[in-house]
From TrEMBL:
The keyword Protease does not apply. GO terms for cellular component: cytoplasm. HAMAP family: RPE. GO terms for biological process: pentose catabolic process; pentose-phosphate shunt. Pathway: Carbohydrate degradation. Substrate binds at residues 10, 66, 143-146, 176-178, 198-199. This is Ribulose-phosphate 3-epimerase. Catalyzes the reversible epimerization of D-ribulose 5-phosphate to D-xylulose 5-phosphate. Belongs to the ribulose-phosphate 3-epimerase family.
Length: 224
């Protein structure tokens, strides 16, 4: 595979009192992952659109918004209008056809992403995925940083990769949760393109070095 892996540090593990500096500490990342949680879809509450707009205004890195919220059709387009590179909604939270959300996101100028919790099968969404640009395979249960990577999600990554490589889908395959130096190679070998890493980047003494290390590991594992 020729395309180089994308590394997306998650601000969830950053110092919330210093979001501008924290976005600048990962200036050499590909995307900056922004986890929106509403205390309903997941049992945790983080930040929403006004904070995203403030970060967007100062971040050297394009934002990758991951909406772990109910009623995504109502809220997601605002993140695209605010300038996010990619906006991902959860399949489990879509009460209507996810394709309508994807169309709204693309019309507002962002990529459209669909996220699947570990227990949600990919096969149920094959008919809607042609309208999406990214598929986020959750490799932990959504809600918190610093959890252990669930290797049982890897078959879903492999299946998505296969569908892309055989021309059935055109998507970036993203993994999120428990990605670190011990797990990124498995996820890369399974076929992921985008790697979200919260604690592995912001928990490191030198986030730039952590990003470079993860990127090198992923690139090597994808070729091998
Ligand atoms: C979890 C979030 C993740 C989280 C990952 O619900 O979606 O993006 O920040 O954190 P780590 O990399 O520490 O597992
Ligand atoms: Zn996330």
């Amino acid at each position: 595979m020729s395309r180089s892996p994308l590394i997306a540090p998650s601000l969830l593990s950053a110092d919330f009192a210093r979001l501008a500096e924290e976005s600048q500490r990962v200036a050499d990342a590909d995307w900056l992952h922004f986890d929106v949680m509403d205390a309903h879809f997941v049992p945790n509450l983080t930040f929403g659109l006004p904070v995203m707009q403030a970060v967007q205004a100062v971040s050297p890195v394009p934002l990758d918004c991951h909406l772990m919220i109910e009623d995504p059709a109502r809220w997601a387009p605002g993140y695209a209008e605010a300038g996010a590179r990619n906006v991902t909604v959860h399949a489990e939270a879509c009460t209507d056809d996810p394709r309508a959300v994807a169309r709204d996101l693309r019309a507002a100028g962002s990529l459209a992403g669909l996220a699947l919790k570990p227990g949600t099968p990919l096969e149920e969404y094959l008919d809607v995925l042609p309208e999406f640009d990214t598929l986020l395979v959750m490799t932990v249960e959504p809600g918190f940083g610093g959890q252990r990577f669930l290797a049982e999600t890897l078959p879903k990554v492999r299946r998505a990769r296969e569908l892309v490589d055989t021309g059935h889908l055109t998507l970036l395959v993203e993994v999120d949760g428990g990605i670190n130096a011990d797990t990124i190679e498995q996820a890369a070998a399974a076929g992921a393109d985008v790697f979200v890493a919260g604690s592995a980047v912001y928990g490191a003494d030198d986030p730039a070095r952590a990003i470079a290390g993860l990127r090198a590991q992923a690139a090597a594992a994808r070729q091998g």
